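Ticket #219: bound-state structure for zinc ion.
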Amino acid sequence: MFVNIHTHRKPQLLDEICIRNAYLHPPKNTEIQYLISVGLHPWFASKMEEKNWVQTLQNSSKIKGCAAIGEIGLDENYPNMQQQIKAFHIQVEWAQEQKMPILIHQVKALSEMQLILKNFTQPIVLHGYNGAIEKWKQLNFYNNTFASFGKTIFNPSKKLIHCIQNIPLNRVFLETDQSNISIQKIYEQFALIRSEPIALISNQMQLNFESVFGKQKFK
Ligand SMILES: [Zn+2]
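RESOLUTION: The complex was predicted; output attached.
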């Protein structure tokens, strides 16, 4: 069984449990054969001008199969930082109120992000993580923050290898995100870097998934 914590595609393997990113508008209930996350991505912060986007987010987050708010966050490489901050803040507050986990997209905006997450007590998944283990430690609020690794592990920097080899496995997820790589390949590569059996990784990812999402009823 392969938990794929963040993808933009439908599940590709029979034994894949995934959370598909649905932006603000999830598919109709009947079409959902997998879990989704909903949220306003920081790249599209200008959509805040769209009327009632908060209401749309709130409604979408209540539909069957919605497991998390995300991906949401801050990206310094994209414009509208003030709008990004505002959108992120609103969505973090909503997730806190609903007791939902969040999936974070963060690029070069660590301190702003820390500020907004200061009082957030629900699980946090830092998607596409490629930073140092020290950064993850800084962000490990309430001992509840997961680093999710994706395709960059095929071409990792030294600090990423160090992070993968030292991060506790109970704070890890794996993901395919927008890539076409199969989640199984990501597991294989991750297992190789850690020098651990793939079965051990896969079992722990299922336990992690259960610990974060198992309490939710998926209405
Ligand atoms: Zn993504």
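RESOLUTION NOTES: The chain has one domain: 2-213.
TICKET STATUS: resolved
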